[in-house]
UniProtKB/TrEMBL annotation:
InterPro entries: Epimerase_deHydtase (IPR001509), NAD(P)-bd_dom_sf (IPR036291), UXS-like (IPR044516). GO terms for biological process: D-xylose metabolic process. Residues 4-230 form the NAD-dependent epimerase/dehydratase domain. Signal peptide: none annotated. Transmembrane segments: none annotated. This is SDR family oxidoreductase. It is a single-pass type II membrane protein. GO terms for molecular function: NAD+ binding; UDP-glucuronate decarboxylase activity. The lineage of its organism: Bacteria, Pseudomonadati, Bacteroidota, Flavobacteriia, Flavobacteriales. Its cofactor is NAD(+). Keywords: Decarboxylase, Glycoprotein, Golgi apparatus, Lyase, Membrane, NAD, Signal-anchor, Transmembrane, Transmembrane helix.
Length: 319
């Protein structure tokens, strides 16, 4: 049985990846310190004999007994309000955490896949974003803690690949959504859905003309799985190129949820990218991947998840 370590396992993407690897017949070790994750995301795996969980902060030395075939490093705050609230931890998990995991991969002769992000392109001047675009990032702005941590993460990963011959994979993830996102993480989908369910107005930041391209979690996990098993060591975009303005997206959510509320406008956060859309030519060419789940279907499934949450969770405020 192949053995895989998944960091950030109690988070949104990490928990879906644990599911997928268990389903594919791997032995999975999940690791997390719960800083933005939730134990309940792994609840259903607790009794699975092929799943083991280690509570650990990956910025501290990581000790794993025995063999490891693969490492997937997904630990990191991922929503703008999370990384603005815990900026130093965000820098540390991208830098020190990644260094520890690369060292572990080297010691175990394991292949490592690193979760990078479309944020490495910053507020992009090239559209759609191709992997060879260097990006437009404000290193000293509030978002810089996340963007630069991820850029450093890519850089040190390539250095381990070139200097130590480590087998590395880098996925640049574009806005991904689905069940198990945290309702209060401030990202636009949980924010709008939470507002609709509580009967509040939907908050659009700026004039709503900024764009995003939303990818359903199952498609994202499929792309990550194929990338891991490919033989390509450089960054690959995984995301859904179907682009929409935030204003139109709010209207779609109003229709889907049936809320009687309206939209209200708030200030645009500093350095909020104006447009974002992945060019996925490379993923198609390398491992024949493209997204299958349309926004209507994916959003319906996501809304079902949020609708089923308890009143307590719906009204829990973290920020
Ligand atoms: P998430 O917040 O749901 O999950 C992140 C997990 O990492 C949490 O469970 C958190 O507790 C854990 N974590 C953070 N710091 C840690 C540390 N020092 N030690 C151990 N565990 C730690 O976020 P997500 O959306 O699932 O994102 C997962 C990864 O994917 C992140 O690396 C993120 O940057 C990347 N990513 C996600 C998206 C997206 O749209 N969801 C987009 C781009 C990149
Ligand atoms: N956004 C918004 N209202 C909200 C939350 C977010 O208009 O309540 C906007 C945000 O300014 C950004 C887009 O939605 O332009 C996507 O934000 P998110 O935090 O989901 O992700 P990211 O900015 O990292 O792409």
């Amino acid at each position: 049985m192949k053995k895989v370590l998944i960091t950030g396992a109690a988070g949104f993407l990490g928990s879906h990846l644990c599911d997928r690897f268990i389903h594919e017949g791997y032995k999975v070790i999940g690791m997390d310190n719960f800083i933005t994750g939730d134990k309940k995301n792994l609840h259903y795996l607790e009794s699975n004999p092929n799943f083991e969980f280690i509570e650990h902060d990956v910025t501290e030395f990581i000790k794993i007994e025995g063999r490891l075939d693969f490492i997937l490093h997904f630990a990191s705050p991922a929503s703008p309000i999370d990384y603005l609230k815990i900026p130093i931890q965000t820098l540390k998990v991208g830098a020190l955490g990644t260094h520890n995991l690369l060292g572990l991969a080297k010691a175990k002769k394991a292949r490592i896949l690193i979760a990078s992000t479309s944020e490495v392109y910053g507020d992009p001047l090239v559209h759609p974003q191709t992997e060879d675009y260097y990006g437009n990032v404000n290193a000293i702005g509030p978002r810089g803690v996340y963007d630069e941590a991820k850029r450093f993460q890519e850089s040190i990963t390539m250095a381990y690949h070139r200097f130590h011959g480590l087998e590395t994979r880098i996925v640049r993830i574009f806005n991904t959504y689905g069940p198990r996102m945290r309702l209060n993480d401030g990202r636009v989908i949980p924010a709008f859905m939470g507002q609709a369910l509580r009967g509040e107005d939907l908050t659009i930041f700026g004039d709503g003309m900024q764009t995003r391209s939303f990818c359903y979690v199952d498609d994202q996990v499929e792309g990550i799985y194929r990338l891991l098993l490919s033989d390509y060591s450089y960054p690959v975009n995984i995301g859904n190129p179907n682009e929409i303005t935030i204003k139109d997206f709010a209207e779609e959510i109003i229709k889907l949820t049936g809320t009687k509320q309206k939209v209200i406008y708030k200030d645009l956060p500093v350095d909020d990218p104006m447009q974002r859309k992945p060019d996925i030519t490379l993923a198609k060419k390398l491992f024949n991947w493209e997204p299958k789940v349309g926004r209507e279907e994916g959003m319906k499934k996501t809304f079902e998840y949020f609708k089923a949450l308890s009143k307590e969770e719906l009204y829990k405020s973290e920020h």
